[in-house]
Amino acid sequence: MTSPNGALLEADKLTIQFGGLRAVDQVSFVVKPGEVYTIVGPNGAGKTTVFNLISRIYDVTDGRIVFQGHDITRVPAHRIARMGIARTFQNIELFEHSTVLHNLLIGRHCRNRTNLFTEIFFTPGVLRQELEHREKVEKIIDLLELQHYREQIIANLPYGVRKMVELARALSTEPTLLLLDEPASGLNIEETDDLANYIDDIKNDLKITILMIEHDMRLVSRVSDRVLAMNQGRVLAEGGPAEVQRHPDVVRAYLGA
Amino acid sequence: MRNIFKTSYVQDIRLFEHGGHVFWYGLLLILVFAAPLVLPQFFVGEMSLVFIYAVAGIGLMVLTGFTGLASLGHAAFLGIGAYAHNYFVTKVGVPFPFALMLAGFVSAGFGIAFALPALRMTGIYLAIATLAFAVIIEQVFSHWASVTGGFRGVAVAKPNLFGWQTTTEVHFYYICLVVLIVITLGTRNLLRSATGRAMMAIRDSEISAQSMGIHIARTKVTAFGISTFITGVAGGLLAHKLQFISPEAFDLILSIQLLLMIVVGGLGSLHGCFYGAIVVAFLPQFLSLVKDVLPPSIGNIPGLQGGVFGLILVLFILLEPYGIYGRWRKTRLFFEIFPLYRRATFKRQRGYLKTERMK
Ligand SMILES: Nc1ncnc2c1ncn2[C@@H]1O[C@H](COP(=O)(O)OP(=O)(O)O)[C@@H](O)[C@H]1O
Ligand SMILES: [Mg+2]
Known about the structure:
CATH class of the largest domain in chain A: Alpha Beta
Radius of gyration of chain A: 19 Å
Strand content of chain A: 15-25%
Strand content of chain B: under 5%
Mean pLDDT of chain B: 85
Helix content of chain A: 25-40%
Radius of gyration of chain B: 21 Å
Distance between the termini of chain A: 43 Å
Number of helices of chain A: 10
CATH class of chain B: Mainly Alpha
Oligomer: heterodimer
Shape of chain B: globular
Low-confidence stretches of chain A: none
Strand order of the largest sheet of chain B: 1-4
Strand order of the largest sheet of chain A: 6-7-8-3-9-10
Order of helices and strands of chain A: EEEHEEHEHHHHEHEHEEHH
Helix content of chain B: over 70%
CATH topology of chain B: ABC transporter involved in vitamin B12 uptake, BtuC
Order of helices and strands of chain B: HHHHHHHEEEHHHHEHHHHH
Shape of chain A: globular
Largest sheet of chain A: 6 strands, mixed
Largest sheet of chain B: 2 strands, antiparallel
Number of domains of chain B: 1
Mean pLDDT of chain A: 93
Number of strands of chain A: 10
CATH architecture of chain B: Orthogonal Bundle
CATH architecture of the largest domain in chain A: 3-Layer(aba) Sandwich
Number of domains of chain A: 2
Distance between the termini of chain B: 40 Å
Structural class of chain B: mainly alpha
Bound molecules: adenosine-5'-diphosphate, magnesium ion
CATH superfamily of the largest domain in chain A: P-loop containing nucleotide triphosphate hydrolases
């Protein structure tokens, strides 16, 4: 389901003020179903803050967020996943003391329908639900080739694997829209190439729309349909990957002028 | 190392992971059920105290070990459970098992009423709030004489099960054992389903728990409710064990003992509750033995017991943060994979910088 104008997600003049700082200032963009839409910009541009606004961790000072035709500007943060928006974090926010499997099962939480009393007695209904979660999670483990790490504790995993686990956890929520905050940061070249393939799979096989923040221009050019460039909380340019990279304002922002 | 070949997802969900577990837990169960037949009376009494402590420990573990919320006031909930249970039995005439459950619900009512406003706080601030709550409740115990008997306290009769008056330590032992088993199974079930996972998620990262669709406030209140329910039930049993309850039975030292129990046993594991309960139940006995050996100038220092409890707590937090259960797992692994064990196996990797981590 989309808005009348065909948008999956619509950010309309998003603005947030932290004290004297306008971290995001009148940012508008539209993400269409099925595309990979990437936000680029130097550090401190306000990209992560845009994600935090969409996932409702911060309240907007001004502006509107519309997802699938519903205004979600005031929806509480814990309802966002169930509506179909999942995310990863720039600095990996996994449940460190738990196994990979456990982390992915937590990703299923927004799809859970059991209640406290049936859980205490672990009724057949709860068992059925647990098996269903497990089957969904195993599909994602297969997709991202995490079989090897299934039973390992997050704290013992290398950085690159953690990034993949976080992606897997986001996919476990069965999202319509996936927000990826710098998915390639800290990955080596092979891992980044793998990531590009996974992003293609997620887009083409799972039919999930992706909104991504990324610095690695090789990856951005390879997977993105459209790119939005930001600096100091404002939109600089929008268009195809090559077009945005050539844009004089973008070039200047990256040179730090 | 034991390699378990898994052929079905149910294997990971089951109560017992593999046949070995079924065997060992079955054996343990037979042993504890047979123990009163051979143990001396005194020891049977001590074991029922271990069971009661273990129930209380599970209560606090749900809150602190699994949800990551520290409480320095759980003695108050033991007290509420104890007084409520005794009130329902003697003044209202509720049959024992139902009175015990009602005691749990009353305690949970107080727990939830406390949690609703207090959960805006975390960490040390929450701990201080629970401490303040416990101090207030102790005052209530002292002054609400019509229910609690005030400073003078009240005597508690032995349990009466639907007309069958229990008389011996052995009867009481079995009552405590059955309650412990029921509470353990219920908690274990909860931990292997969605609510338990939500609690552990909050413990590890609130921000991503929220983004996975977990309602933080509701889950924390639920954890408080379950925790104080279980602790209240333990309080009901403790009332019978003490035979006489008065406000000072539920003081700060008891709260610290409860905390000591789960830290020493191993935070975040149900097994830890049992190890911790054994330590806390037998430590006073052990200390009084040691006291006789020590020169009087040391042995008679006032507050020695509280001091030793505190010292053990600090030493465990510093040296063995995963408690006895963690130590046992390391030891077992050492023998399983000998000679391949590396000292760093359980060392946590250096954490990655979380510079931009949100509060
Ligand atoms: N919670 C906050 N309080 C105050 N300032 C913040 C907060 N979150 C982000 N900012 C500021 O907003 C600006 C944009 O940050 P961010 O969105 O993280 O940038 P980036 O584009 O690198 O992801 C930065 O100057 C940052 O310091
Ligand atoms: Mg960022």
